[in-house]
Amino acid sequence: MKIKDREPLFRGTTILAVRRDGKVAVAGDGQVTLNNTVMKHRARKVRKIYNGKIIVGFAGATADALSLLERFESKLEKHQGNLTRAVVELAKDWRTDKILRRLEALLLVVDRDNFFLLSGSGDVIEPDDEVMAIGSGGAYAQAAAQALVQHTTMSAEEICREAMQIAAGLCIFTNNQLTLEEL
């Protein structure tokens, strides 16, 4: 395939969730990259939904993620805020619906008690510990956050901020323009 035949490749999202001492924080960087050019520095990829009781972070194609977010919110309404049920129902739809199946995004969804990662292949993943990350810099952010959880007394918000700074220093698709939400 010739280079000119390739579709542009948008990249650049790191989302990190940390739970500690009864609080949960979710941070997302603001970078959107098209091939090797930074197109946007302050994209907002982390949001509170359902009357501020749930935080969602998304990675992947933005339009796809926003479509999924809209469907997820309707599932939450239908199931009266039952996060686990809404997540499972969205994952079932995502996997079986012909149009939804083509969406390229990941959702990280948290409330005070639950962490979930949803993917288009029907995965619903709960982390083994109190840290979870997605996106191009997700592995860096998660490793940094896990070390900070184990070796410091920092709060969930402080760990998110510091781990995201570390990820921004390592991943060229991650910056330090953070959106951070906390429950």
Automatic annotation (TrEMBL):
One GO CC annotation: HslUV protease complex
CDD domains: protease_HslV (cd01913)
InterPro entries, per database record: ATP-dep_Prtase_HsIV_su, Ntn_hydrolases_N, Proteasome_sua/b, Proteasome_suB-type
Assigned keywords, A-Z: Allosteric enzyme, Cytoplasm, Hydrolase, Metal-binding, Protease, Sodium, Threonine protease
Catalysed reaction equations from the record: ATP-dependent cleavage of peptide bonds with broad specificity
Active site: T13
Regulation (activators, inhibitors): Allosterically activated by HslU binding.
Main location as per UniProt: cytoplasm
Location in the cell: Cytoplasm
GO biological process: proteolysis involved in protein catabolic process
Residues holding Na(+): A168, C171, T174
Protein role: Protease subunit of a proteasome-like degradation complex believed to be a general protein degrading machinery.
Family (UniProt): Belongs to the peptidase T1B family. HslV subfamily.
Self-association and partners: A double ring-shaped homohexamer of HslV is capped on each side by a ring-shaped HslU homohexamer. The assembly of the HslU/HslV complex is dependent on binding of ATP.
NCBIfam families tied to this protein: ATP_dep_HslV, PRK05456.1
Name this polypeptide is given: ATP-dependent protease subunit HslV
UniProt source species: Desulfobacca acetoxidans (strain ATCC 700848 / DSM 11109 / ASRB2)
